[in-house]
Amino acid sequence: MKYFLFRVLKYIFPLFLFLIIVSIPIEKLLRKIPNDYSYKKNYLDKNSNNIEIIFLGSSHAYFGINPLFTTLKSFNAAHVSQSLNYDFAILKKYQPVFKKLKYIVIPIDYFTLYSTLQNGIEKYRVKNYIIYYGISTNPFTDLFKLEISGNPLTNLARIKNFYTKNKNDISCSELGFGLNYNSKNNQNLEATGILAAKRHLSKDDQYFNYNKNILNEIINITQRNKVKLILYTSPAYKTYRQNLYLKQLNQTTQYIAQLTHSLKDVYYYNLLSDSTFNSEDFFDADHLNEKGAEKLTRKIDGLMNDKINCN
What we know:
The protein is α/β, with parallel strands linked by helices. The protein has two domains: 1-31; 35-310, SGNH hydrolase (Rossmann fold, 3-Layer(aba) Sandwich), CATH 3.40.50. Helices cover 48% and strands 9% of the residues. It has helices at 2-31, 36-47, 59-62, 84-94, 126-133, 152-165, 189-199, 208-224, 238-241, 246-261, 290-310; strands at 53-55, 74-76, 103-107, 228-233, 266-270, 282-284, 287-288. Strand 1, helix 3 and strand 2 form a beta-alpha-beta unit. Helix 4 (84-94) packs parallel to helix 8. The longest helix has 30 residues, at 2-31. It is globular and about 55 Å long. Mean pLDDT is 92; it is low at 15-20.
């Protein structure tokens, strides 16, 4: 038995060593390809001291907020599937250099308090925060969060596109707004509403208290630094709204409304059913296109400039 194991290791170890030797330069090549995470991290490194509004959140904010339409200097630091704990980690990382920050804006949507990135279907995105933001989750497991862990064919295509065609992986504007959900390619609002509502349904509330605690940590940052916190529920088309599980939805909106009621400089706006948004504003049933994003951004900017400043 020992002889057999020795023979196996004798052949496996050189193969393992070969894979490591080959993988290292490929990993380096992949990490040099600019993407949304590296771009936003570099932007925040260079410009945080001048930002007056920081937008955070998931794809609803990434595709729904365009900083071009804010009165004050702002930046969209949202990412697809970004959960509250990563919103908090980004704030914590850059809080010391936010010299002019006046507002932090975060969506609290149907799924926000019921999920985390690392436990969701897009948990592969965790590596991006480790690699590009330097946000650690577990020092041991972080070692295994690599670009090469992705689809080999996709990675080869990325390398070819960047090093032969100078085509990078950045899909956001200069100010962080997601550009891919264009009105020219609007999706079927009926089908996407049903699918998205089903995808965002939580079978239990195991992450609810965890996310409540994270939100309290975010509030503590805003209170200590005298920054106003704007929470909002994103607009959605009726086919999404009609398929939501009311218990999950009501528990979220009622909790946030109650939480913010007596807090100074913390505001909540439920825009889920806002009638100013119509079918032409949506890329799919729960994401805005560029037209809807302009409308939402101007609306939130107006709320900040009018109602909050008056208060």
